[in-house]
Design brief:
about 35% helix; Rossmann fold; 6-stranded mixed β-sheet; about 25% strand; about 240 residues; 4-stranded antiparallel β-sheet; alpha/beta; 10 strands
Length: about 240
């Protein structure tokens, strides 16, 4: 069984075609990079895969659950870290996680376990408003891991972080994959995707324009002068990284 299986998925917003008949699959335990320019359809796809949006047509299953009819069965199996940091800054990391542990119905022992997993044990009692962006990001990952999901969606997890902290986040992602967690990753940092991902899909204007391992894709486009993933990305999308439509 695939961790994620998407078949001819389409999503429209009135007259805007955000996702246009895309198909792909993700294997269990894989770090799968979902890459594309701003406005390409990445966030819409994640919202469909996490049960927040209904597809206009096509289908998707996540951990064996249909994203429409099986939404309630899906939720306990996934963790989501969105691009925007939404934590209770008046609470400590420990307070944030204890609150969500009650919501998830998980044992409070998981709080200390995930704090250790992301390296926040020593400052667990400090109010999170005093945390750096990197610490807040680690707290968000800890929160997403509380209920021990089999699949983690990470939307731009290292955006705006300094290189040292970004490296720490990447190490956490690698460790999770080593534990068998499937990771669905979006990032604008092509070196990061090349370093972490088992396979990548590049989406542009709502359509998947490339899918495979980085080495496979570079070999396929070697004649186009694509020596690395950034070259390939710019070649296929026809615009600079991070530029809006």
């Amino acid at each position: 069984m695939y961790a994620i299986e998407v078949r001819n998925l389409t999503r429209r917003y009135q007259d805007t075609l955000a996702v246009d008949d895309i198909s792909f699959s993700v294997d269990p335990g894989e770090i799968f990079g979902f890459l594309g320019p701003n406005g390409a359809g990445k966030s819409t796809t994640i919202k469909v895969l996490t049960g927040q949006l209904r597809p206009t047509s096509g289908s998707a299953t996540v951990m064996g659950c249909d994203v429409v009819s099986g939404r309630q069965q899906l939720k306990p199996q996934i963790g989501v870290v969105f691009e925007h940091q939404n934590i209770y800054e008046r609470e400590s990391a420990q307070g944030n996680l204890r609150f969500y542990a009650r919501l998830y119905g998980v044992d409070r022992s998981r709080v200390q376990a995930v704090l250790s997993q992301v390296g926040l044990t020593e400052r667990a009692r400090e109010k999170s408003k005093n945390y750096s962006n990197g610490m807040k990001q680690r707290l968000l990952i800890a929160r997403a891991l509380l209920h021990q999901p089999a699949l983690l969606f990470l939307d731009e997890p290292t955006r705006g972080l300094d290189p040292n902290v970004a490296r720490e986040i990447r190490a956490i992602i690698s460790d999770l994959a080593d534990l068998g967690v499937t990771v669905f990753l979006t990032t604008h940092y092509m070196e990061e995707a090349e370093q972490l991902c088992d396979r990548v899909a590049i989406i542009d204007q709502g359509r998947v324009v490339a899918l495979g391992t980085v080495e496979q894709l570079k070999a396929e486009h070697a004649q186009d002068g694509c020596a690395n993933l950034e070259d390939l990305f710019v070649h296929l999308t026809g615009r600079h990284l991070g530029q809006d439509h």
